[in-house]
Write a structure and sequence with these properties.
By secondary structure, this protein is of the alpha/beta class. 20% of the residues lie in helices and 29% in strands. The chain has helices at residues 56-59, 65-77, 115-125, 151-161, 181-198, 218-226, 246-260, 287-299, 315-321, 324-330; strands spanning 9-14, 51-54, 87-90, 129-135, 165-169, 204-207, 232-234, 272-274, 304-306, 339-344, 347-353, 359-365, 371-376, 388-392, 398-401, 404-409, 414-421, 431-435, 439-441, 446-454, 460-468, 474-476, 479-482, 490-498, 509-519, 522-535. α6 (218-226) links the parallel β6 (204-207) and β7 (232-234). α8 (287-299) runs parallel beside α10. It starts with 8 loop residues before the first strand and ends with a strand. Bound molecules: alpha-D-galactopyranose. Alpha-D-galactopyranose (GLA) binds at residues 56, 91-92, 133, 140-142, 169, 208, 211, 238.
Length: 536
């Protein structure tokens, strides 16, 4: 009797995106030019999304003078401040439990022995801006002295300390008879906003109220009201602390992305949706996930507020934060928040129109394993053109396409391309790599096809196509010669593989096919990905 056969079958569950049914979303709330709230900065500040540092997600109530000043020095030393990360905000727990004899807020002298005015002076001497946290209610979320009934006093004190940015939280706001909670919040934040303006100092106002109204109809009312009296406002949930586990952190990022992405109508120069801090740095995220948060936040014109220990940040994390091409998308002066133009099973395509007529297009794979995601310049809202220049904003690779935009994206990953209509002459053609559907049984040879399509108007002179398989699988030959492909044409290649052990249920792995080729005299690379799952 032969040994019992392994019966679990392994199949490709996500083939190339053109095999996946595609629904084109038209979120009225987010489409540029449609239903957007058009108003400028109420105080002339924050014409692009604020950038800087906040200690909260990394240090919580453990903040002190040494933490703030060492983080500030690290921003300068790493060059991040020169790229725009200039506002250093001391979050909750800098203050005492009670106000002083004349109603003044007092620093906790064990943590800030020289007071908060000293912090402001030191930050300014480093060329940075001074941000501070307070609460609109009777106490902060950490239970320390709040500002209820003392907005003028607080604003004057902050101006005196040289504060440039206030984050006003909304814990412990009392219930007022005859008023809805929404009315009380709106009134309180509007008063604080006026108090800041009355100081005559230019102070960016970051409001937290919308984060206290996450459900129901008031959700949008509060954002609309806040967008007239503040420069940015928190929405979604608190981003997890940097010490949380990777899954919790990723779920927090994915939740806030989903919450924030449809709110584009409220965003614009001087008034921004804030889906909370960046966890790029010393967190449990993978580098793919860190890159995704940076990419998605920039595409959504979100404030870029680092919350990590910058003194210990890895070179990979610093590279992600310092990517000028992606920062330029976030800081684009047109100030449109990117929105979803196409979605499918586990993936989204976003577009953000930019001031110079380009668009930034993001392919986002929310699933755990990778896929090739496929869209077009027309879907991304670009005008019709014979050719488009594509710049991959992470790798810097420049190619040209006649309209299709396709790339292999890692699970939890993003690809971000800047797309320029009417440009790209002399650049290599963009390629799309798709992997054909197959089903395989462990130990039984199977063949899989990979197709390279030339999306540009130059031919692909040839190169190689490499198939990477999960550990325990074998493939032969893993590297094949890619023949010449005419502009607009394609070449299909066949690989023999032997599947290894089955995944223990669910989608666990992926196949990647990478084309390395020459076109228009330049070298270029493109990868296609496909998830592998198990059935049976
Ligand atoms: C709230 C805010 C956080 C942080 C803490 C401080 O939870 O949403 O960002 O400021 O309070 O206590």
């Amino acid at each position: 009797m032969s040994a019992p056969r392994f019966t679990c079958r392994v199949v490709v569950v996500l083939a190339a995106a053109w095999l996946v049914s595609v629904s084109v979303a038209s979120p009225a709330s987010a489409a540029p030019g449609r239903a957007r709230t058009v108003h400028t900065s109420y105080n002339g500040l924050a014409l692009t999304p604020p950038m800087g540092y906040n200690d909260w997600s990394y240090y919580g109530c453990g903040v002190d003078q040494a933490v703030i000043l060492s983080q500030a020095r690290a921003l300068v030393r790493t060059g991040l401040s020169a790229l725009g990360y200039v506002t250093v905000t001391t979050d909750d727990c800098w203050m005492s439990e009670t106000r002083g004899p004349s109603g003044e807020l007092r620093a906790d002298r064990t943590k800030f022995p020289r007071g908060m005015g000293y912090i402001g002076r030191r930050l300014h001497a480093m060329g940075l801006k001074f941000g501070i946290y307070e609460d609109a209610g009777t106490r902060t979320c950490g239970g320390l002295a709040g500002s209820w009934g003392r907005y003028r006093r607080t604003a004057e004190q902050f101006a005196h300390w040289g504060v440039d940015y206030v984050k006003l939280d909304g814990c412990h706001v009392p219930k007022i008879d005859g008023q809805s909670r929404e009315q009380t919040y709106n009134q309180a934040y509007a008063r604080f906003s006026r108090a800041l303006q009355a100081t005559g100092r230019q102070i960016v106002f970051s409001a937290s109220a919308p984060a206290d109204f996450r459900v129901g109809r008031q959700r949008l009312h509060v954002i609309a009201a806040t967008s007239r009296i503040a420069n940015l406002w928190r929405d979604g949930a608190d981003i997890p602390h940097a010490q949380a586990d990777g899954a919790e952190e990723w779920n927090g990022i994915a939740f806030n992305f989903g919450y924030n992405v449809g709110l584009g109508r409220y965003a614009g120069p001087g008034h921004w949706n804030d889906p909370d801090m960046l966890l790029v740095g010393d967190s449990s995220l993978t580098s793919v996930e860190m890159q995704s948060q940076m990419t998605l936040w920039s595409e959504m014109a979100a404030p870029l507020i680092i919350s990590t220990d910058v003194t210990q940040a890895s070179p990979a994390a610093l590279r992600i934060l310092a990517n000028r091409r992606i920062i330029a998308v976030d800081q684009d002066r047109r100030g449109v928040q990117g929105h979803i133009v196409q979605s499918g099973s586990g993936y989204d395509v976003l577009t953000k129109p930019l001031a110079d007529g380009d668009a930034s297009v993001v392919l986002f794979d929310q699933a755990q394993t990778g896929a090739t995601i496929d869209t077009t310049a027309a879907t991304a809202g670009l005008p019709s053109s014979r050719r488009y220049e594509l710049t991959d904003l992470v790798t810097g690779q420049r190619t040209q396409t006649m309209g299709r935009i396709a790339a292999g994206v890692y699970g939890h990953g993003t690809v971000i391309e800047r797309v320029r209509p009417g440009a790209g002459v002399g650049l290599p053609s963009a390629a799309a790599v798709s992997i054909g559907r197959f089903a395989a049984t462990r130990g039984e040879p199977e063949s899989v096809t990979a197709t390279v399509t030339d999306d540009g108007d130059a031919s692909i002179a040839g190169g190689t196509l490499t198939l990477a398989v999960p550990a325990g699988w074998s493939v032969s030959p893993a590297v094949q010669t890619l023949p010449r492909v005419a502009a607009g044409g394609h070449a299909t290649m066949r690989f023999s593989l032997v599947p290894g052990s089955p995944p223990a249920g669910g989608v666990v792995s992926e196949l990647d096919a990478t084309a390395r080729y020459r076109s228009a005299g330049h070298a270029a690379t493109q990868t296609g990905r496909v998830a592998i799952g198990s059935v049976g």
